[in-house]
Predict the structure.
Amino acid sequence: MGPGRASGREHGADERAERLDRREFEAQALEHLDAVYRMALQLSRRPEDAADLVQETFLKALRASERFEPKGGGIRPWLFKILRNVFYSRVVREQRGPAASENIHQHASGSPGPDESKPAWNLASMDWEHVDDRLKSAINSLNPEYREVLLLWGVEGMKYREIALIVDVPIGTVMSRLFRARAALAQQLGPLAAEVGIRVEDEGADPQ
Amino acid sequence: MNLSETTNLLRRAADEELTSEEVQALESHLAAHPQDREFIAFERRLRGAVGRVMGDVSAPQDVRAAVQAQAAQPALRLAGTAASAPGALRAAPRRLLAPSGLAAGVVLLVGAAVVIGLSGRADWFDWFRAPQIDISSEDGSLGFPIDEHRRCESDATYAQKKFTLHSREQLRQHFADELHWNVSLPDLGAFGYEFAEAGNCSVGRGTVDSVHLRYTNGPSTLSVWIEQSMPSDLTHSAAIVEGHAYLVTPTNREAARDAKGAYYAWRDCDFVYRLVPASVDQAREMAVAIGMPDVPAEEIH
């Protein structure tokens, strides 16, 4: 190909040391199986599809374990990124078919993205046990791109930086999607707040 | 701060994502608007509620068992240890390897530097699914496209000496009349890149083995490499099956000291393309224009 052919044939111990041992990688990856399955279920909405996604995700991750860089943000974001790519590859592939895309994207066009409105009430003292069903419904009604970010934030406890890495968008986009999703949830929880006696404040109570 | 900025500040405060400067701004704001502490509390509770109502899902036992069985497969075990064997191929793409007779051929190498302001985004491309090859984890020449691109960027004297062709027409004549290589020149005008210069390369056999093309878009540059008739032990092209994309990762000791990143490689008929992207997004942008195939690994055989 060109100049610079290396003459050495030794494999650097320091190189190996920078990478996780194979078994250690497996163990760490499997710790996130539930999280990967949760996200797979959110993406696919069908347990059987989620199971396939999870298996393919781990297969690819284990095969590519040598590529994993511990300094790159950890195994979990890496697994999520693989999962997303596996899922959206399937979407793209099935979109080429006549009927598959509608099933996969049935939620994509179902509801518009949330707007930038902010909650106009004081919900800090809300009894959250009362809102679970409503909240779950509100989350499920979000567009996938918002729901995905919201779940990585709320369920997986990820930082903006990690989410950006997984979703492959700038951090600013993550924040924008996340804030709009939260605003939409707060909006939908408003009527419930009134039902359970939470004081709904006027615009003046918005964050200044 | 306007209302939107304040709301964002409070949400990021709830998420513990503020910088030290922003923490000071927050404290000042809360001193003036103590009621907004409730907003932060609400946002934290909302996060907890989202986690509670959506997080109560575990992988079924059969899924867990299947994944654990995958991890125990001998092929995957081999994949995890292949890098320690000099010159070995990783097991993952083993089924993708071409017969050894693919040594000869024209190789088109593409090296990309920073790309700014790309337009005309290509269809989504699954780079992450590119089957990975590590043809020779010990071989320093794997990092050559990246090294050479960097050198031409940083060493103007070297670049001036190397690049002797300064127009597309000159280059076309060079391929047709001097090298007799029947190659297509990438047209990257849609991405704002214009051909700038090109020069020959050789591995010291007294013949031109490759031609290095540079494209520019303002301060950004893009390198295209075209190679021909290289022995397989020098080009590694034997492992690249037509119509599929591979990720080539230099992992030798030199790369361990100086991370070179990775580049993508694919073959189209007698051509092998190699793309060194500055980012995944960049690779996606350039994929269609360069001709990188979008074929998942599962469809290869």
